[in-house]
Amino acid sequence: MSSKTLLNLFCGALAGLLALSSASHAGTLVLEHGFENLTGQSGSSAPTVNYPFGTSYLEYWNRHDAGTDVISNCEGRRAYEGSNYLHLQFRPGADPCLSQNAIYQNNYLQFGQNFNYPTGDQDRSEFQDTVTSNTMIVRFYFRLTGDWSASNDAADNGGGLKFIRVNGNGRVGDEAGALIKLRLDGDSTDPRWNLYDPGTFRNTYFRTGVNIKDGNWHSMSFKVVLNRTDNSTNNVTMTFWVDDWDMNGPGHSHTVTCSNFGTGFYSNELFTNWSASTPVNPMGMDLDKLEVWDGLPFPPPSPPQVY
To answer: pTM of the entire structure?
Structure first.
C-alpha cells in the first residue's frame, strides 16, 4: 500500500472522528411547551399539561393566575403554531383576553425548578440536573399587545422590562443572573435591548432592526455560556437574536461578570418586575413555542474531508 493511500485513509478516519465529535455537541431539549392540551386555569391548578411556570409562594401564584391565561384566540390573534398560546397583562385591571382582572405588573413566569405551585400538572424538571453543559439556550415566540407607546413608559423607568433572566445556582441577587432587558425607547420602531453586567452595574445597548411593536409574532433566542465556574471576572457570555430562531446570524453578544452565578444553571424567569414600575395603560404580551436546550440545538458543521 502506497504512502499516499495510507495518508488518505488516515485523513479520512480523522475526519470521521472529528465529524462524530462535532455531532456529539448537539444539544438536548430539556423543556418544550406550546400551551396545548388546555385543561382550564382555576386556583392553584395548572392550565395545561406539564405547565412550565411555577412559584414558591401562593401569593405569587395568585398574581400569576390572575395575570395570565392560556387561550386560543383574542381579537383575532391566534397561536404561532398549534391551537393555544399564553397571554399575559402587565397593567393591573381588566384585559379582554383574560378571564379575570390582572392584579400585579409582575406575573412571575419562573421555570426550571420543582416549585410549590401550581399543585397541578407542572413540569418539574430542574435545570440544575438537566442542563449539565456550560451552555443554555432559551428561545420562544412573543407578540406585544396593547399600548407599548411612549406615553406608557413603564419599561423606560428604572431600567426597563427584565425580558429574560437565567439564574445560576449561586441564586442570590443580580450577581447570580444573566439578564437581558427591553427598553421601550419612546415610539421607536426599533427599541433598545440591553445586556446587564452586574460586575460593573452597566448596560450594553443594542438595536436589532426589528419592529417588535408591529403586532406580529417575533422569535427571541438567548444563549448563556458559563465560561468558568469560580465566579471570576468575565465568567458569563450572553448572546441574543431577534427573528433569527436558528441563530444563523452573529447575534448581539456581551461578556459580563456575575460574581455569584455559581457552578451551573438553576432556573429562569421571563418578563418580570419592570424595575418596580407599573404601566400607565394596559400593555400585554403573547407567548408560544417555549424551548430550553442544554447545549446548542444543532451540531456545528462537520469539518471538510482532507485529501
So the answer is: 0.89
